[in-house]
Amino acid sequence: MEDLNKDKSAHKNTVSKDMVMKKYGEAPHENREEVQDFVNLRMNKVSSLKLRLRQETHEKFLRPSVMLTGVDQCEHMKFIVKLANAKKGIELGVFTGYSALSFAEALPEDGLLIAIDVSKEWTDIGMKYWKEAGVDHKIQLRLEGGIIVLDELLADENNKNTFDFAFIDADKNNYPNYYDRIIQLLRSGGFLMIDNTIWNGKIADEEQRTNDQETAHIWQIVDLAMNDERVEVHTIYLSDGLTIVKKK
Ligand SMILES: C[S@@+](CC[C@H](N)C(=O)[O-])C[C@H]1O[C@@H](n2cnc3c(N)ncnc32)[C@H](O)[C@@H]1O
């Protein structure tokens, strides 16, 4: 592991990392997959319809799809959206609609999720399940690039400072371009969830942050948030990493 104090590009702490980072007495976790299944299915309430959506997605891609957001992560985000009594959100990156369905479950009957993706083929799968779950009226699907839709929303002053939450899980190279646009759309107290901020561990590798484009762009959005006085930031090592940014 690299020296964390060497990196000048983002917020950092100068105390000894050995003292603060180690978690003592942790048991080895050889049966991690089994435990993950137990947590997902016995310690979260996930409908069989949502599991069918995952199953169909896995079958279509002929293997467990890495694009699908994790079961426990979606339940976590859904829980936060509920805790916040959120009514209006934006999702960038819908794929086959699993996370959008989770958000829609958390929204009230008159809630709205603007769900943005470029693939009709993939979102058609999601649409089928949104309808079956009876939440399709809460989801407005926009089949366009993320920047186009965000700029369109921003062009109407009435949209600024009004959204309760947003979730970014689309093209990684555009992550930094999405950041300020979303912050402008969020209300004070609203929050942005950024997916994949651990990026399979590459985020902690200086060489990857420098030379791998997607890692560099993911790091850039985290860095933007870490140095932004308008927000508070928190990252959790859940699934592939989730950074949550709350607008003050
Ligand atoms: C990781 S998947 C999203 C997974 C989804 N959140 C879920 O829970 O299953 C990323 C999605 O981003 C979409 N995407 C890629 N480039 C995009 C862009 N420029 N604008 C909007 N969506 C884009 C892809 O079509 C893909 O469906």
Descriptive notes:
The chain has 248 residues and is of the alpha/beta class. It has ten helices and seven strands. The chain has helices at residues 17-21, 32-42, 48-60, 71-83, 98-106, 120-133, 146-155, 175-185, 206-211, 213-226; strands at residues 88-92, 112-117, 139-143, 163-168, 186-195, 231-236, 242-247. It has a seven-stranded mixed beta sheet with strand order 3-2-1-4-5-7-6, sandwiched between helices. Helix 3 (48-60) runs antiparallel to helix 6 (120-133), helix 5 packs parallel to helix 6 (120-133) and helix 7 (146-155) runs parallel beside helix 8. The protein is globular and about 50 Å long. The model has no long low-confidence stretch (mean pLDDT 92). Bound molecules: S-adenosylmethionine (SAM). S-adenosylmethionine binds next to helix 5 and strand 2. This is Sam-dependent methyltransferase.
Assembly level: single chain
CATH topology: Rossmann fold
Largest sheet: 7 strands, mixed
User: What is the topology, as strand order, of the major beta sheet?
Assistant: 3-2-1-4-5-7-6
* Fourth-level CATH superfamily: Vaccinia Virus protein VP39
Radius of gyration: 18 Å
Task: Name the structural class.
Answer: alpha/beta
Briefly, what CATH class?
Answer: Alpha Beta
Principal-axes shape call? globular
Portion in beta strands? 15-25%
Number of strands: 7
- Number of discrete domains: 1
Keywords: Methyltransferase, S-adenosyl-L-methionine, Transferase
Family: Belongs to the class I-like SAM-binding methyltransferase superfamily. Cation-dependent O-methyltransferase family.
Region (Disordered): 1-20
Biased composition (Basic and acidic residues): 1-10
